[in-house]
Amino acid sequence: MIELHFNQLAQMEKLCAILILFSLLIANTYATSKEAKDAEKWFQKYLSQRKEKVAKLHFYIQDALGGPNATLWEVARSEITSDSPTMFGQVSVLDDKITAEPDRNSEELGRAQGLITSADLRVSGLAMNMNVVFTSGPYNGSTLCILGRNPIGSTNRELPIVGGSGVFRMARGFSISNTYSYDPVENYGVLEYTVYVFYA
Ligand SMILES: *[C@@H]1O[C@H](CO)[C@@H](O)[C@H](O)[C@H]1NC(C)=O
Ligand SMILES: *[C@@H]1O[C@H](CO)[C@@H](O)[C@H](O)[C@H]1NC(C)=O
After folding, report:
1. Using CB atoms within 10 A as the burial measure, which of 30, 114, 130, 160 is most buried?
2. 67 lines ligand 1 (CB under 6 A)
3. CATH class of the domain comprising 53-199
4. What is the 3-state secondary structure (H, E, C) of the chain?
5. What are the extents of the domains in the chain?
6. In testing the pocket of ligand 1, which one of 62, 69, 71, 97 has its CB within 8 Å of the most ligand atoms?
7. Which has more confidence, 5 or 169?
8. Nearest 5 degrees, angle CA 61-CA 101-CA 70?
């Protein structure tokens, strides 16, 4: 038993040494990369002229819940989900189109990508982890991270913005959303979002 234990320790030490070597290699590759230099340059500039910006964004999320072209799909559920009045335990993944106008065929501003989990046993409430990924316009390539509880039964729902990337580095703020329209025949919803955000 003890010998085995020592053997395992020796193996773990070897593995650790390999991992450390590997991470050093990665670290070196990172340190000389364009991304690292850009991040460092950004950090120095941020330190010297730290001034927060603020933005108000308004957009619509096209939530296709059904049909072959649905953009939201269930990926897991619990044993009690089917009997639960709140669909407790249902986990879905989404990649919804974001538009500037409510019309579903209007130009794509970005995508709303992430996971939503029905996480309230008593009233409808979602635990959301959703990234707003801009794919056009001045924010193209930048993201905002929405993370928090969505009281889906309420008319105006506040959600925290906990971070961002690109233009929205260091972002924090909140969004207010409401259901702009819902078509039960097609199972298609349009959600209106107003986002208030500070960023670096
Ligand atoms: C699904 O998308 C395809 C390709 O864009 C389109 O041709 C088709 O009509 C769509 N189907 C439905 C039911 O919307
Ligand atoms: C957004 O950025 C991507 C990646 O840089 C680029 O390929 C694409 O053409 C841009 N789209 C628009 C609409 O500017």
Report:
1. 130
2. yes
3. mainly beta
4. CHHHHHHHHHHHHHHHHHHHHHHHHHHHHHHCCHHHHHHHHHHHHHHHCCCCEEEEEEEEEEEECCCCCCCEEEEECCCCHHHCCCCCCCEEEEEEEEECCCCCCCCEEEEEEEEEEECCCCCCCEEEEEEEEECCHHHCCCEEEEEEEECCCCCCEEEEEEEEEHHHCCCEEEEEEEEEEEECCCCEEEEEEEEEEEEC
5. 2-49, 53-199
6. 69
7. 169
8. 35
Kindly report whether the global pTM for this prediction surpasses the value 0.85: no
CA 190 to chain centre: 19
Q: 114 C-alpha to center of ligand 1: Å?
A: 23
Could you tell me which residues are beta bridge partners of residue 161? 146, 173
140 Cα nearest atom in ligand 2? 1
| Tokens (6 digits) for 67 | 């049909």
Q: How remote is the CA of residue 89 from the centroid of ligand 1, in Å?
A: 30
Radius of gyration for the chain, computed over Cα atoms and rounded to the nearest angstrom: 22
Which-ligand-closest: CA of 69?
Answer: 1
**109 contact partners, CB below 8 Å, separation of at least 6:** 59, 98, 99, 100, 134, 135, 136, 137
Look at 87 and 19; give whichever has higher pLDDT. Answer: 87
What is the 90 CA–ligand 1 centroid distance (Å)? 26
Minimum CA distance residue for ligand 2 atom 9: 136
Residue 141 alpha carbon, nearest atom of ligand 2:
2
